[in-house]
Amino acid sequence: MTTALIFLPLAGCVVVGLLPLPRRGTELLALAVALAEAVLGAIALVGFDVGGGVQFAQNTRWISDFGAGVPVRYHVGMGGLSLFMVLLTAVGIAAAIGAAMVAGRERVRVYLALMLLLEFALVLLFTAQELVLFYLGWEAMMIPLYVLMGTWGGEGRRRATIQFVVYTMIGSLLMLVAIAVLGVSAHTFELSALTSHPHESTWLFLAFAAAFCIKAPLFPLHGWLPSAYRESTIEVTALLSGVISKAGAYGLIVFAVPLFPSVAHDWRWLFLGLGLAGLIYGAVVAFRQEDARGVVAYSSLSQMNLIIIGIFAFNSNGVTGAIFQMVNHGVVSVAAFLLIGLVELRAGTDRFRVLGGLANGRPVLSTVFLIAALWALAVPGSSIFVSELYILIGAFQQQAVLGGVAAVGIVLAAMYMLRWYSALAHEGDGEKVSPETPDLRIGELAIAVPLLLILFALTAYPWGVMQRVTTSQVAFDTPAKVQHL
User: Fold this and answer.
1) pTM beyond 0.70
2) Between helices 142-152 and 131-140, what is the axis angle to 10°?
3) Do 70 and 188 meet the contact criterion of CB atoms below 8 Å apart?
4) Residue in 292, 318, 308, 301 with CA at minimum distance from that of residue 387
5) Rounded CA gap, 485 and 51, in Å?
6) Is the peptide bond before 217 cis (omega within 30 degrees of 0)?
7) Which domain holds residue 324?
8) What is the pLDDT of residues 340-383, one digit of tens each?
């Protein structure tokens, strides 16, 4: 099952990229591959044995000697967290391909093939149970992102792409050195073997953490975020915020902390302090943005720093909330950015000063935007309310001041998301909005409605996620209890 999930998008990438189909045929084929991946993920979810640890595993020798007599194995499988990250990837890619079809991207064959290549890399890194394999997925992810951002982005795409690549490569090189040193010294790259004998090296931990915190991003390592989110196509921006940022948090939970539990515990106040700063900074800057993308971009920065607070609270409530928030925020941010893309298609811009009044005569568009905004501001009863509550409980367990400041950041989130919705849907009709501006069409609803239904499902049954991740040994109460997810 796991191998099929990994290589189906890669096979789809090759076929879509090489098969000389007409535009519509290429789009439908890519969408079929993405939907098939989502169906496979759903089958894995149904068949997942709660409390069964890493499942759907395959472990075979790949490279007999990777230097110093250390073998590399093709070892993949899914624990609870891996499963939901794969599902999030499948949903995000399918929605992004649908949005690309609506937008009518140029050179669609290459564009969609790169989307499927990105899905292959993400699923590989989320399912890898071996350090070299994980690194391959981590680096392979950069290839399609580099081309997608640099070729199809806006006027400032070159600067944004270079910035993103430089930031990422610095972290990746540090992690590569750390993987090599750790694997050679322990004579294995197997994650289960390495986490069963925790390590005490501070610099190795910081090397892993740097790579993951840049990708998340943790404040102040977010310098690449504003330009990347604004200059990429809306589908790539949605994936950067909804899925790719989660790879950073995933790396912290599955690799950095379990490999170096005592060191991570000793350094927790650095990450908690930076996380609090990023939570408040992102919220304040989001409130001051003059464009819809900017609000959601800095909102994503704020929310990812909240997730990092949950991780480094070092208790099961905080980490369980962080994982559930990763799933919730992933779906919400994909939905929010793709909805912004639909506005851009109608108005040619996302600037608040020329928009407004989209709710007038467009009830479907207004309703969909309102639902996305309500979930983003964590209205009581929503799935995000549950995950943020767990993070706050974990933060208060660690330190009352930590929980109090985090609560302020969450309140600020409600303010900027209300402003976001009001500026787009209400106020007077902007100069880019006219009575002829259409409501959501059937094809656009086919993208938005499934994402909203997922949010309703998470709200109706949050335990469906939380039970699977908590029984995957999410135990951060003390360094000694940190285990492999």
Assistant:
1) yes
2) 10
3) yes
4) 318
5) 11
6) yes
7) 267-485
8) 998 888 888 888 888 877 878 788 888 888 888 888 888 888 89
The helix/strand/coil state of 56 is: strand
DSSP conformation letters of 192-204 = HHHHTS----HHH
Quick: pLDDT tens for 47-106: 998 877 889 989 888 887 666 668 888 999 999 899 999 999 999 999 999 999 998 899
Number of domains the chain contains? 1
Count of C-beta atoms within a 10 Å radius of residue 16: 29
| Residue 235 domain-assigned (yes or no) | no
- Which is it for the CA torsion 258, 264, 269, 271, positive or negative? negative
Bridge-partner residues for 59, per DSSP? 75
In a domain, 433, yes or no: yes
Cα–Cα dist 47/106, whole Å: 39
Q: Determine which helix (DSSP H) or strand (DSSP E) holds 439, and give its type and residue range.
A: none
Asked if residue 11 is part of any domain, the answer here is no
- If DSSP codes are grouped into helix, strand and coil, which group holds residue 50? coil
Class of residue 267 by CB neighbours under 10 A (exposed 0-12, middle 13-18, buried 19+): middle
State both tokens at 52. Answer: 């069964």
Q: Could you tell me if residue 133 is inside a domain? A: no
Q: Positive or negative CA dihedral for 411, 314, 219, 396?
A: positive
**Strand runs labelled E in 100-207:** none
Residue 151, classified by CB atoms within 10 Å of its CB into exposed (0-12), middle (13-18) or buried (19+), is: middle
Strands (E), 406-464: none
Contact 337, 297 (CB under 8 A): no
